[in-house]
Specification:
Layout lengths: L5 E5 L3 E7 L9 E5 L2 E6 L2 E6 L4 E2 L5 E5 L4 E8 L12 H5 L21 H12 L4 H12 L52 H15 L2 H9 L2 H8 L14 H8 L10 H24 L8 H8 L1 H4 L23 H17 L6 H16 L2 H16 L6 H16 L3 H13 L11 H20 L1
Antiparallel strand pairs: 1-2, 2-8, 3-4, 4-5, 6-8, 7-8
Helix pairs in contact: 5-16, 8-9, 8-11, 8-12, 11-12, 12-15, 13-14
Length: about 450
Protein backbone atom coordinates (compact mmCIF):
# COMPACT_ATOMS: atom_id res chain seq x y z
CA UNK A 1 0.00 0.00 0.00
CA UNK A 2 1.12 3.56 -0.71
CA UNK A 3 1.24 6.20 2.01
CA UNK A 4 -0.17 9.32 0.32
CA UNK A 5 0.93 12.91 0.78
CA UNK A 6 -1.21 14.72 3.33
CA UNK A 7 -1.37 17.73 5.58
CA UNK A 8 -3.50 18.70 8.57
CA UNK A 9 -5.22 21.91 9.63
CA UNK A 10 -7.42 22.71 12.60
CA UNK A 11 -9.99 25.12 13.93
CA UNK A 12 -11.32 25.49 17.46
CA UNK A 13 -13.92 22.79 16.82
CA UNK A 14 -12.47 20.46 14.19
CA UNK A 15 -9.38 19.03 12.53
CA UNK A 16 -9.12 18.51 8.77
CA UNK A 17 -6.87 16.06 6.93
CA UNK A 18 -6.24 16.68 3.22
CA UNK A 19 -5.03 13.52 1.47
CA UNK A 20 -3.59 13.59 -2.06
CA UNK A 21 -4.98 10.55 -3.90
CA UNK A 22 -5.51 11.40 -7.59
CA UNK A 23 -7.33 9.23 -10.11
CA UNK A 24 -9.39 7.24 -7.62
CA UNK A 25 -13.08 6.65 -7.16
CA UNK A 26 -14.43 8.48 -4.14
CA UNK A 27 -17.10 5.80 -3.67
CA UNK A 28 -14.38 3.28 -2.74
CA UNK A 29 -12.98 5.26 0.18
CA UNK A 30 -13.05 3.67 3.63
CA UNK A 31 -12.69 5.90 6.69
CA UNK A 32 -12.52 4.67 10.26
CA UNK A 33 -12.17 6.62 13.52
CA UNK A 34 -11.16 5.07 16.82
CA UNK A 35 -10.62 7.77 19.46
CA UNK A 36 -7.28 9.28 18.39
CA UNK A 37 -6.78 7.01 15.38
CA UNK A 38 -7.89 7.85 11.85
CA UNK A 39 -7.46 5.37 8.99
CA UNK A 40 -8.21 6.19 5.36
CA UNK A 41 -8.13 3.43 2.73
CA UNK A 42 -8.75 4.06 -0.93
CA UNK A 43 -6.92 1.65 -3.18
CA UNK A 44 -3.92 1.83 -3.64
CA UNK A 45 -3.50 4.36 -0.80
CA UNK A 46 -3.58 3.71 2.92
CA UNK A 47 -3.11 6.33 5.64
CA UNK A 48 -3.15 5.85 9.41
CA UNK A 49 -2.84 8.95 11.60
CA UNK A 50 -2.62 9.04 15.37
CA UNK A 51 -3.83 12.41 16.68
CA UNK A 52 -2.69 13.75 20.06
CA UNK A 53 -6.32 13.97 21.27
CA UNK A 54 -9.57 12.11 20.48
CA UNK A 55 -11.79 13.05 17.52
CA UNK A 56 -15.40 12.22 16.71
CA UNK A 57 -17.40 11.41 13.61
CA UNK A 58 -20.69 13.31 14.01
CA UNK A 59 -23.10 15.47 12.00
CA UNK A 60 -20.47 18.20 11.62
CA UNK A 61 -17.91 15.74 10.19
CA UNK A 62 -17.51 15.36 6.45
CA UNK A 63 -15.44 13.84 3.67
CA UNK A 64 -15.21 15.57 0.29
CA UNK A 65 -13.21 14.67 -2.81
CA UNK A 66 -12.07 17.21 -5.40
CA UNK A 67 -11.26 15.40 -8.69
CA UNK A 68 -9.59 18.49 -10.15
CA UNK A 69 -6.96 18.72 -7.39
CA UNK A 70 -6.92 15.04 -6.40
CA UNK A 71 -7.39 15.85 -2.69
CA UNK A 72 -9.70 14.03 -0.31
CA UNK A 73 -10.49 16.24 2.70
CA UNK A 74 -11.69 14.54 5.87
CA UNK A 75 -13.04 16.88 8.54
CA UNK A 76 -13.53 15.49 12.06
CA UNK A 77 -14.92 17.06 15.21
CA UNK A 78 -12.70 17.46 18.25
CA UNK A 79 -14.05 15.59 21.25
CA UNK A 80 -13.13 18.59 23.41
CA UNK A 81 -14.04 21.80 21.60
CA UNK A 82 -11.30 24.43 21.68
CA UNK A 83 -8.56 21.92 22.51
CA UNK A 84 -5.28 22.59 20.70
CA UNK A 85 -3.85 19.71 18.65
CA UNK A 86 -0.07 20.24 18.78
CA UNK A 87 2.53 19.12 16.21
CA UNK A 88 0.16 18.56 13.30
CA UNK A 89 3.04 19.54 11.01
CA UNK A 90 5.31 16.78 12.35
CA UNK A 91 4.20 14.06 9.97
CA UNK A 92 6.47 11.36 11.36
CA UNK A 93 4.89 11.86 14.78
CA UNK A 94 1.37 11.54 13.34
CA UNK A 95 2.35 8.38 11.48
CA UNK A 96 4.04 6.73 14.45
CA UNK A 97 2.27 3.65 15.89
CA UNK A 98 -0.14 4.32 18.73
CA UNK A 99 1.49 3.55 22.05
CA UNK A 100 -0.37 0.94 24.05
CA UNK A 101 0.10 0.94 27.79
CA UNK A 102 0.62 -2.57 29.17
CA UNK A 103 -1.07 -2.88 32.55
CA UNK A 104 1.30 -3.89 35.30
CA UNK A 105 0.48 -6.93 37.39
CA UNK A 106 0.09 -6.16 41.09
CA UNK A 107 2.90 -7.34 43.27
CA UNK A 108 1.79 -9.53 46.17
CA UNK A 109 3.98 -10.02 49.19
CA UNK A 110 3.25 -13.14 51.21
CA UNK A 111 3.79 -12.34 54.87
CA UNK A 112 3.01 -15.77 56.26
CA UNK A 113 1.58 -18.98 54.94
CA UNK A 114 0.46 -22.04 56.83
CA UNK A 115 0.43 -25.22 54.74
CA UNK A 116 0.40 -28.83 55.69
CA UNK A 117 3.38 -31.04 54.89
CA UNK A 118 1.15 -32.94 52.48
CA UNK A 119 0.20 -29.81 50.51
CA UNK A 120 3.86 -28.73 50.37
CA UNK A 121 4.75 -32.12 48.93
CA UNK A 122 1.98 -31.90 46.34
CA UNK A 123 3.16 -28.41 45.36
CA UNK A 124 6.72 -29.68 44.98
CA UNK A 125 5.51 -32.52 42.74
CA UNK A 126 3.63 -30.06 40.56
CA UNK A 127 6.69 -27.85 40.21
CA UNK A 128 9.14 -30.66 39.46
CA UNK A 129 6.88 -32.24 36.87
CA UNK A 130 7.68 -29.42 34.42
CA UNK A 131 11.39 -28.89 35.02
CA UNK A 132 14.15 -29.87 32.66
CA UNK A 133 16.70 -32.67 33.07
CA UNK A 134 19.40 -30.14 33.92
CA UNK A 135 17.22 -28.60 36.61
CA UNK A 136 16.58 -32.08 38.04
CA UNK A 137 20.33 -32.62 38.32
CA UNK A 138 20.66 -29.34 40.17
CA UNK A 139 17.88 -30.27 42.58
CA UNK A 140 19.42 -33.67 43.17
CA UNK A 141 22.82 -32.08 43.78
CA UNK A 142 21.27 -29.72 46.30
CA UNK A 143 19.52 -32.61 48.05
CA UNK A 144 22.78 -34.58 48.33
CA UNK A 145 24.87 -31.49 49.09
CA UNK A 146 27.22 -32.07 46.18
CA UNK A 147 29.91 -29.38 46.02
CA UNK A 148 30.23 -28.13 42.45
CA UNK A 149 33.24 -25.86 41.71
CA UNK A 150 32.15 -22.23 41.24
CA UNK A 151 33.93 -19.31 39.63
CA UNK A 152 33.00 -15.68 39.14
CA UNK A 153 32.66 -14.68 35.50
CA UNK A 154 35.12 -11.94 34.53
CA UNK A 155 32.90 -10.49 31.80
CA UNK A 156 29.34 -10.93 30.56
CA UNK A 157 28.88 -14.08 28.50
CA UNK A 158 28.52 -13.32 24.79
CA UNK A 159 26.12 -15.88 23.34
CA UNK A 160 26.17 -14.39 19.84
CA UNK A 161 28.96 -13.34 17.53
CA UNK A 162 26.81 -10.55 16.13
CA UNK A 163 27.62 -6.99 17.14
CA UNK A 164 24.92 -4.36 17.15
CA UNK A 165 25.25 -0.65 16.49
CA UNK A 166 23.30 2.33 15.22
CA UNK A 167 20.21 3.88 16.75
CA UNK A 168 19.50 2.10 20.05
CA UNK A 169 21.82 -0.70 18.86
CA UNK A 170 19.12 -2.00 16.53
CA UNK A 171 21.27 -2.82 13.49
CA UNK A 172 23.81 -5.40 12.41
CA UNK A 173 25.15 -6.74 9.12
CA UNK A 174 25.43 -3.41 7.30
CA UNK A 175 29.24 -3.67 7.12
CA UNK A 176 29.54 -7.39 6.35
CA UNK A 177 31.07 -6.74 2.92
CA UNK A 178 32.87 -3.53 3.83
CA UNK A 179 36.20 -4.97 2.60
CA UNK A 180 34.82 -4.83 -0.94
CA UNK A 181 33.26 -1.38 -0.58
CA UNK A 182 35.20 1.87 -0.54
CA UNK A 183 34.32 3.72 2.66
CA UNK A 184 36.86 6.37 3.58
CA UNK A 185 35.25 7.23 6.92
CA UNK A 186 35.03 3.70 8.30
CA UNK A 187 37.72 3.53 10.98
CA UNK A 188 36.97 -0.05 11.99
CA UNK A 189 37.79 -1.59 8.62
CA UNK A 190 36.81 -5.21 8.14
CA UNK A 191 36.30 -5.53 11.91
CA UNK A 192 33.24 -3.25 11.91
CA UNK A 193 30.94 -6.24 12.47
CA UNK A 194 33.05 -7.85 15.19
CA UNK A 195 34.35 -5.00 17.40
CA UNK A 196 33.00 -4.63 20.90
CA UNK A 197 32.04 -1.08 21.98
CA UNK A 198 35.24 -0.59 23.97
CA UNK A 199 37.30 -1.75 20.97
CA UNK A 200 35.51 0.74 18.71
CA UNK A 201 36.37 3.55 21.09
CA UNK A 202 40.02 2.50 21.27
CA UNK A 203 40.27 2.40 17.47
CA UNK A 204 38.60 5.81 17.21
CA UNK A 205 41.03 7.41 19.64
CA UNK A 206 43.96 5.79 17.89
CA UNK A 207 42.77 7.09 14.52
CA UNK A 208 42.33 10.62 15.89
CA UNK A 209 45.89 10.60 17.20
CA UNK A 210 47.15 9.39 13.84
CA UNK A 211 45.27 12.08 11.90
CA UNK A 212 46.31 14.94 14.19
CA UNK A 213 48.74 17.17 12.25
CA UNK A 214 50.50 19.90 14.22
CA UNK A 215 51.78 21.66 11.11
CA UNK A 216 48.34 21.83 9.52
CA UNK A 217 46.83 23.26 12.68
CA UNK A 218 49.64 25.80 13.10
CA UNK A 219 49.33 26.90 9.48
CA UNK A 220 45.59 27.50 9.87
CA UNK A 221 46.22 29.30 13.16
CA UNK A 222 48.65 31.76 11.56
CA UNK A 223 46.85 32.25 8.24
CA UNK A 224 43.24 32.36 9.43
CA UNK A 225 41.81 35.23 7.37
CA UNK A 226 39.36 33.01 5.47
CA UNK A 227 38.55 31.01 8.59
CA UNK A 228 37.59 34.23 10.35
CA UNK A 229 35.22 34.97 7.46
CA UNK A 230 33.60 31.57 7.95
CA UNK A 231 33.29 32.16 11.67
CA UNK A 232 31.64 35.53 11.02
CA UNK A 233 29.14 33.99 8.57
CA UNK A 234 25.55 34.30 9.79
CA UNK A 235 23.09 31.44 9.38
CA UNK A 236 19.94 33.24 8.28
CA UNK A 237 17.80 30.16 8.80
CA UNK A 238 18.23 30.54 12.55
CA UNK A 239 17.02 34.12 12.38
CA UNK A 240 13.56 33.02 11.21
CA UNK A 241 10.98 32.97 13.95
CA UNK A 242 8.99 30.11 12.45
CA UNK A 243 9.90 26.82 10.77
CA UNK A 244 7.41 25.73 8.10
CA UNK A 245 8.27 22.51 6.31
CA UNK A 246 8.48 22.48 2.53
CA UNK A 247 6.72 19.98 0.28
CA UNK A 248 10.04 18.18 -0.24
CA UNK A 249 10.62 17.92 3.51
CA UNK A 250 7.10 16.59 4.05
CA UNK A 251 7.67 13.92 1.40
CA UNK A 252 10.89 12.84 3.10
CA UNK A 253 9.11 12.58 6.46
CA UNK A 254 6.34 10.50 4.87
CA UNK A 255 8.92 7.95 3.77
CA UNK A 256 10.51 7.57 7.19
CA UNK A 257 10.11 4.21 8.98
CA UNK A 258 7.00 3.67 11.10
CA UNK A 259 8.50 2.76 14.45
CA UNK A 260 7.84 3.21 18.13
CA UNK A 261 10.90 3.45 20.36
CA UNK A 262 10.97 2.46 24.02
CA UNK A 263 14.42 3.59 25.19
CA UNK A 264 15.54 3.24 28.76
CA UNK A 265 16.48 6.36 30.70
CA UNK A 266 20.16 5.75 30.00
CA UNK A 267 19.49 5.21 26.28
CA UNK A 268 17.37 8.34 26.08
CA UNK A 269 20.15 10.39 27.62
CA UNK A 270 22.59 8.92 25.11
CA UNK A 271 20.26 9.90 22.24
CA UNK A 272 20.26 13.56 23.27
CA UNK A 273 24.05 13.53 23.57
CA UNK A 274 24.47 11.79 20.20
CA UNK A 275 22.15 14.37 18.66
CA UNK A 276 24.64 17.06 19.72
CA UNK A 277 27.39 15.38 17.70
CA UNK A 278 25.16 15.13 14.61
CA UNK A 279 24.21 18.79 14.81
CA UNK A 280 27.84 19.80 15.41
CA UNK A 281 29.02 17.95 12.28
CA UNK A 282 26.30 19.45 10.11
CA UNK A 283 26.87 22.91 11.60
CA UNK A 284 30.57 22.63 10.67
CA UNK A 285 29.78 21.69 7.06
CA UNK A 286 27.01 24.25 6.80
CA UNK A 287 29.30 27.01 8.08
CA UNK A 288 32.37 26.07 6.00
CA UNK A 289 30.30 25.77 2.81
CA UNK A 290 28.02 28.66 3.77
CA UNK A 291 24.98 26.44 3.29
CA UNK A 292 26.03 25.35 -0.20
CA UNK A 293 27.02 21.67 0.17
CA UNK A 294 29.92 20.37 -1.90
CA UNK A 295 30.78 16.83 -3.06
CA UNK A 296 32.94 16.60 0.08
CA UNK A 297 30.11 17.47 2.47
CA UNK A 298 29.04 13.86 3.08
CA UNK A 299 32.63 12.87 3.92
CA UNK A 300 33.03 15.88 6.23
CA UNK A 301 29.85 15.14 8.16
CA UNK A 302 30.57 11.43 8.56
CA UNK A 303 34.17 12.07 9.60
CA UNK A 304 33.08 14.42 12.38
CA UNK A 305 30.45 12.08 13.86
CA UNK A 306 32.05 9.31 15.98
CA UNK A 307 28.80 7.34 15.83
CA UNK A 308 29.25 7.12 12.04
CA UNK A 309 32.97 6.69 11.50
CA UNK A 310 33.64 4.40 14.47
CA UNK A 311 30.09 3.34 15.48
CA UNK A 312 30.96 4.97 18.81
CA UNK A 313 28.18 7.27 20.11
CA UNK A 314 28.55 9.18 23.39
CA UNK A 315 28.25 6.83 26.33
CA UNK A 316 30.81 8.36 28.58
CA UNK A 317 28.65 8.61 31.73
CA UNK A 318 28.75 5.89 34.35
CA UNK A 319 25.38 4.18 34.75
CA UNK A 320 25.34 4.81 38.49
CA UNK A 321 25.38 8.56 37.86
CA UNK A 322 22.27 8.47 35.67
CA UNK A 323 19.21 9.93 37.43
CA UNK A 324 15.97 7.98 37.57
CA UNK A 325 14.29 10.28 35.07
CA UNK A 326 15.24 12.98 32.60
CA UNK A 327 14.37 16.51 33.60
CA UNK A 328 15.48 19.91 32.45
CA UNK A 329 18.36 19.61 34.89
CA UNK A 330 19.25 16.07 33.85
CA UNK A 331 22.53 16.97 32.10
CA UNK A 332 25.60 18.46 33.72
CA UNK A 333 28.26 20.52 31.99
CA UNK A 334 30.55 17.51 32.22
CA UNK A 335 27.98 15.42 30.36
CA UNK A 336 27.79 17.89 27.48
CA UNK A 337 31.54 18.54 27.36
CA UNK A 338 32.36 14.82 27.26
CA UNK A 339 29.88 14.33 24.40
CA UNK A 340 31.30 17.21 22.33
CA UNK A 341 34.97 16.56 23.07
CA UNK A 342 35.39 14.03 20.21
CA UNK A 343 33.64 16.48 17.87
CA UNK A 344 36.14 19.20 18.78
CA UNK A 345 39.09 16.84 18.34
CA UNK A 346 37.88 15.56 15.00
CA UNK A 347 37.24 19.05 13.68
CA UNK A 348 40.90 19.79 14.46
CA UNK A 349 42.24 16.59 12.89
CA UNK A 350 40.18 15.69 9.80
CA UNK A 351 38.61 18.43 7.64
CA UNK A 352 40.20 21.18 5.56
CA UNK A 353 39.73 24.06 8.01
CA UNK A 354 41.10 23.27 11.47
CA UNK A 355 40.46 25.94 14.04
CA UNK A 356 39.51 25.83 17.71
CA UNK A 357 37.57 29.07 17.25
CA UNK A 358 35.63 27.37 14.43
CA UNK A 359 34.76 24.50 16.76
CA UNK A 360 33.47 26.98 19.33
CA UNK A 361 31.37 28.65 16.63
CA UNK A 362 29.86 25.27 15.75
CA UNK A 363 29.02 24.64 19.42
CA UNK A 364 27.18 27.98 19.48
CA UNK A 365 25.38 26.95 16.28
CA UNK A 366 24.20 23.75 17.96
CA UNK A 367 22.90 25.80 20.89
CA UNK A 368 21.03 28.12 18.52
CA UNK A 369 19.47 25.19 16.64
CA UNK A 370 18.30 23.49 19.84
CA UNK A 371 16.90 26.77 21.15
CA UNK A 372 14.53 26.83 18.16
CA UNK A 373 12.97 23.52 19.21
CA UNK A 374 12.52 20.18 17.53
CA UNK A 375 11.07 21.59 14.30
CA UNK A 376 14.31 23.40 13.53
CA UNK A 377 16.32 20.38 14.70
CA UNK A 378 14.24 18.22 12.36
CA UNK A 379 14.93 20.57 9.43
CA UNK A 380 18.69 20.47 9.97
CA UNK A 381 18.75 16.68 10.31
CA UNK A 382 16.58 16.42 7.16
CA UNK A 383 19.19 18.47 5.30
CA UNK A 384 21.93 16.17 6.63
CA UNK A 385 19.90 13.17 5.46
CA UNK A 386 19.57 14.69 1.99
CA UNK A 387 23.35 15.01 1.71
CA UNK A 388 24.02 11.46 2.91
CA UNK A 389 21.24 9.86 0.86
CA UNK A 390 22.79 11.21 -2.34
CA UNK A 391 26.15 9.58 -1.66
CA UNK A 392 26.71 6.09 -3.05
CA UNK A 393 28.36 4.81 0.16
CA UNK A 394 27.53 7.08 3.08
CA UNK A 395 23.78 6.66 2.66
CA UNK A 396 24.20 3.68 4.99
CA UNK A 397 24.55 6.06 7.95
CA UNK A 398 21.12 7.47 7.16
CA UNK A 399 19.72 3.96 7.42
CA UNK A 400 21.26 3.07 10.77
CA UNK A 401 21.19 6.48 12.46
CA UNK A 402 19.54 9.46 10.77
CA UNK A 403 16.17 8.00 9.76
CA UNK A 404 15.45 6.78 13.27
CA UNK A 405 16.65 10.03 14.78
CA UNK A 406 14.17 11.96 12.64
CA UNK A 407 11.29 9.79 13.85
CA UNK A 408 12.42 9.95 17.48
CA UNK A 409 12.91 13.74 17.42
CA UNK A 410 9.38 14.35 16.17
CA UNK A 411 7.60 11.72 18.24
CA UNK A 412 9.50 11.66 21.53
CA UNK A 413 12.09 14.43 21.93
CA UNK A 414 11.28 17.23 24.36
CA UNK A 415 11.44 20.91 23.42
CA UNK A 416 11.94 21.68 27.10
CA UNK A 417 15.01 19.46 27.36
CA UNK A 418 16.41 20.84 24.10
CA UNK A 419 15.98 24.41 25.33
CA UNK A 420 17.70 23.59 28.61
CA UNK A 421 20.63 21.96 26.77
CA UNK A 422 20.83 25.01 24.50
CA UNK A 423 21.17 27.32 27.48
CA UNK A 424 23.88 25.09 28.96
CA UNK A 425 25.78 24.94 25.67
CA UNK A 426 25.83 28.73 25.38
CA UNK A 427 27.58 29.00 28.73
CA UNK A 428 29.69 25.87 28.33
CA UNK A 429 33.46 26.30 28.23
CA UNK A 430 35.58 23.69 26.47
CA UNK A 431 39.24 24.60 26.93
CA UNK A 432 42.14 23.81 24.65
CA UNK A 433 43.77 21.90 27.48
CA UNK A 434 40.84 19.46 27.49
CA UNK A 435 41.62 18.46 23.88
CA UNK A 436 44.92 16.86 24.88
CA UNK A 437 47.21 17.96 22.03
CA UNK A 438 49.14 20.79 23.75
CA UNK A 439 47.32 23.28 21.55
CA UNK A 440 48.14 26.29 23.73
CA UNK A 441 51.88 25.54 23.59
CA UNK A 442 51.70 25.11 19.81
CA UNK A 443 49.93 28.43 19.40
CA UNK A 444 52.43 30.17 21.65
CA UNK A 445 55.36 28.68 19.74
CA UNK A 446 53.76 29.64 16.44
CA UNK A 447 53.29 33.25 17.54
CA UNK A 448 56.90 33.35 18.77
CA UNK A 449 58.23 32.04 15.46
CA UNK A 450 56.11 34.53 13.56
CA UNK A 451 57.38 37.39 15.74
CA UNK A 452 61.02 36.32 15.24
CA UNK A 453 60.49 36.11 11.48
CA UNK A 454 59.01 39.59 11.42
CA UNK A 455 61.97 41.00 13.40
CA UNK A 456 64.48 39.35 11.05
CA UNK A 457 62.73 40.69 8.00
CA UNK A 458 62.62 44.21 9.46
CA UNK A 459 66.37 44.12 10.11
Amino acid sequence: MITPRFYCTQTLESVAVSVYCPSVRASDVEINIDETLLTVHINPYFLRINFPHPVLEDDQSSATYDPSSGYLTVTLTKETKGQEFPDLDLLAKLLAPRHVEVPKQPTIEVIESETSPQSELEELVDLTSAISLEQRDILQAAENDWQFPQTVAESPLQLSTKRYYGFLDMYTGYFTHVAHTENDVNELGSEAESCLPEERRAKRLQHEEMKWDEEHYMADYVDDEYIQELIAWEDRELAHAECIFTESENMTMLNLPRKEYLPTTSQQRALYLTLLTLLFAYAYDRRTTQHDPTPESAWTICSLVPAFSALDPPRYIASESVPLSISTSGFTDDDLASALMPSYRRSLAFPLYRSFAMADACRNDVAAILAKGKRMVTRYILEMKHILDHHEVYYVYSKIWVDDFLVWIQASASDEIMLDIAEQLKALTITKTMIGWNIEKLEAATLLDTSDSDNESSE
